[in-house]
Amino acid sequence: MEGVLEADGPGTIARGDLRFLRVMLGLQIALGLLWGISMLVFARQIVLGPPDGPHIEKIAMEGAAHMMLVFGAFLVWRAPARARDVLLLMIFLNALWTLTDLVYIPLLGLSEIDFYAKVIVNAFLAIGLALSGRRAGIL
Fold this sequence. Notes:
By secondary structure, this protein is mainly α. It has one domain. The protein is 73% helix and 0% strand. It contains 5 helices and no strands. Helix 4 (84-108) packs antiparallel against helix 5 (113-135). The longest helix has 25 residues, at 54-78.
């Protein structure tokens, strides 16, 4: 039964419906690893001020949250029919990061393109995960 789910019984998912979800999960894994590792390892280089202090911890914690999203994506990939709540948390965290960035980027007067790219990517992931989860019948 390797990856094949029957669409006849309750709580099952048709295999074709999982392609879009798995594409979005793959993006979440790739971007989560990229951001998570860079924030955990290179927090001192990423910081917008002096390379010491409590803000370094905050960057590292955000990196850890990205790694949590990677783990969540693996859980959803492995058992999509049982991972509705995990998928909802992933959508919520990506949407929350989008809203937070939309508030603090103008508030702090940040203008670097990577801040805006992160907003776009987080919004894309939140919307894409929601749509793909709905298409797969999970949400």
